[in-house]
Structures are given as C-alpha cells and as structure tokens.
Sequence to fold (513 residues):
Amino acid sequence: MHWADEKAENALRDKGRENVVASGISPSGPIHYGNFREILTADLLNKAINDQDGDSKLIWVLDDYDPLRKVYPFLDSDYEKHVGKPLSKIPDPEGCHESYAEHYTSQFVDALSDLGIEPAIHKASKMYKKGEYTEEIVKALKNRSKIKKIIEEVTNRTISENWLPIKPICQDCKNVSTTEAKDYEGKKVYYECECGYNGEADIRNGEAKLPWRVDWPARWKILGVTVEPFGKDHAADGGSYDTGKRIAKEIYDYEPPYPVVYEQIALKGEGEMSSSEGITLTPAKMLEFFPSEIIRYIIVRKKPNRHIELDTGYGMLHLMDDFKEVEDAYYEEGEKEKSRIYELSLPEKNPRDSKPPQPPFKHLVNATQLVDNLDSIKSILKRTGHWDDEYEDTWLNNRIKLIRNWLDWFAPEDMKFEVKENLPDKVEKLSKKQKKFLGKLADLLEENDYNDEQLNNKIFNTFQDMDMEAREAFESIYLALLGRDSGPRAAWFILSLDTGFVINRFREASKVN
Fold:
C-alpha cells in the first residue's frame, strides 16, 4: 500500500467519510519546492481519501496576514520600514502586484494548476476582514487564562500575567509585531504600540489577528479541517501542534486534524531550501526544465518522514530512469505500489490508455545537442528504435524545450558536447594504433549499414582484434568528433550523425601526422 493510501485509510477511520484536507503557507518570500511538499502531500491525501470512497476537499490557506519578520537577502534595505507589517499590506518589491504577499503567491498558484493541484484558496487577510475569525477571537479572549496555562505547560515558558491572545494592527505605523493588547471590551481591543500610538482595534474587520499558536486551532474550527500535513518544526515537542491540539479541544471543543508530518527538502550542495537564506528553487522554475510528473514523483515516491535531497544535475538522469520503471509497472500490470506511485505522480486525473513515448532520457539529451530541429531529432530516435510515427510531436517538442533549459542551467559539463565542424586540434595526441583503428572504422561504415547493436559489436571486435584497450578505442572516436576524451555511447552517437561526415572525419583523423 502506498503511504498516501495508508494514511487516507487511517484518516477515514479516525475522522469519518467527510474530510477537509488543509495546507497553508506564509508568503514571506519565494515559495520554493520545500514548501511545495506540504501542498502536494495534502493533494495526495485528498486524492487517496476520495479514491477510498471518501468525500474530501482540498483547501490552501494563505497566511498573508503574518508580519514580515526581517529584511531578507533578496530585499532592498528600504524594506526595513516594513518589518512587522502584515505581508498583505506591504508593497510588491518588483511593483507588479498589489502587495508583497500577492507577488510571491501568484507565480506559485499558477504552477499549482500546471501540476494538477487545484485547492480552494482562503486568504487569512480576507478571513479576518470578513469577520470569519470573530467568534473564535472572542472565545480566545474570554479563555485567555486557560490558553496561557496550556502554552506554559506545553512549552515550559512563562507568559506575562496580563497577556491577551490577540495582536492588534497599529492604526498609525501599521505594524502588528510592535503592539501589545492591554484590555478588551466586547469586540474592541485596546492596545499600545512601540511607536507611541494608543488605540483600539475592532476584531470584526481585521484590525487585529490571533497569534499563530491560537490562530492555527481557531482556523481548524472555522474551516472544518480534519486532515493536515505540516513540517517537523511544528511537530516538535512543545511545538505549535502540541499547543494547537489542546487549544482546539479545550477552548474550541474541536478535535484536531489527523496529522501528517513531513521532512524538509534540500538542494544538493546548498542545504535545506529556505527563502530567508536564499536557497530556493520554485515549482514554477522547475516546470521550465522538469516534466510536471517528475516534479510530483520526487515527493510521491518518498514517505513524508523521509528527507529529500534534490539533485538537478546527474540526479535528473536517475529520476527519469526510475520513473520509467513505475510507468512500466502501471502499463504492464507490474508491482502494485509502483503502479500507484505512477498514478499519483501524474498531474492529470487519469493516465492515458496507452503507454506514452519512452525514449531514453540520455538519448534525448544527446539528440538535442546533435541537431536543432524536431524532424532531425525524430529521425535520430527512429534510427535507434525509440520513436514511432504514432507518437505526438507535442510531447517531444515539450521534452526538447525542457532539456535545452536543463542543459543551459544544470547539466554536468561532461554531459554537454558539440560536434566539431573541423578536425579538432586534439587529434594530434592520437597514437598510431588509434589512428589505424579509426581508419578501420571508416572502412566498416563504408561497407555496410548497421543498427545500434551491430555497430557496437563491430567496434568491440575491431579494437579487440587490434589488441587495444577499450579506453584507447573510444577515446579516439570522441577526440575525432568532439575534441575531448569522452562522449555519448559510441555506436548510438556515430549512427546519429551523417554517415558520410563520420567516414570523412575518421579518415582525416587517421592521416594526421
């Protein structure tokens, strides 16, 4: 059983048939792939619950009423004056959206659609301004002593005797981090701000917000949340889930959601993804070089409590090979868990009736570097038995576009190559035996047409008959064509090029003094 199905089964047992699966994010900066793990996990749980005859819906809460906590590395120093203000009330750093929050949310939301995730979106700023939190705020204020006791018992920290579980937004400086609630009466909260302003906030129209440890359980009650994934920081002993579940039960008379704790995602060579540290790779950017199903697959195949290190270089090759295995399992009725991984990795609701094209990723990478147009790439794939006229050109066009971006941005240097128009200078290092070997290869290519396997056998037989090391033989091929010691699989590479060109190049290289 796939982990999503197992947890869905548990959720259905604990929470009943009707469920609301929630995810949330504070858009304090670029919403990266580490953040994406939460909403995809929620999407998988939602799908798995519905697949088991549950009645579930997916929601995403945008915490755009959270304050800007500091001037992050990607911001101008001028943003110091906005620290402490709600993200929805801060200007967009690039001036293209209505607010800071909207700027970092819009691109992510667009990417969600491309990745097959379509949640109902709830903006915290609108929820507060529309009065959706009013009843729960009143309840929190009336039970402030109980909430204070819960937080102190769970976190082992001391809270001021006069503490109120509410953070007014200063009407003067617009800051929510520098205010302190002093008293309340009905729907009014009286506060002081470090800027020197004293005022009153109406809790019915978004002039104040609950602190996170109270906001979270209040939200569960307001939105009817029954299942929610969240990061290990919230799940730590004394963390916000520990306080939240007690506040939910003891203050709001609400059962906390079924929890699914997930680990972080790191970028290989850089560390765990973090907007504040500038270690980010957004799903929108990934869609420019990763197929959408692979972006999902990276997370789908790992249990939530497993750490993921994303390798955009060589890791891309392994991912594509691994994904082919789960695709084969689905269409060939193989291992059930692999088949399920494939289903859950697809952004579309249902897999296509017949298996999609599966040209080896390395072949596509190499073909894309050999020629620059679709028809030529198709010809190369056909000659090596990896393309059929029934396949869709749109599929191949999309893959070519992604591969070209990957080559430009992330491909390891030894994966890149360029066939030299003229004989490379490095052929001068060829030994006499290597030159003779190239001459023999030219003769073989002139005598017959070969398929990939036949030519590969001829190459091996030739250098073995000459008592050559394999390294010497292949080095001579790559030096003659690329001007370097290594390259793509030799037989495939040779057959992908114009035969006359290869024959002439090998003969030319064999005669170098």
User: Anything to note?
Assistant: The radius of gyration is 30 Å. The CA atoms of residues 328 and 420 lie 38 Å apart. The longest helix spans residues 33-51. The domain at 425-510 is CATH 1.10.10.350 (Arc Repressor Mutant, subunit A).
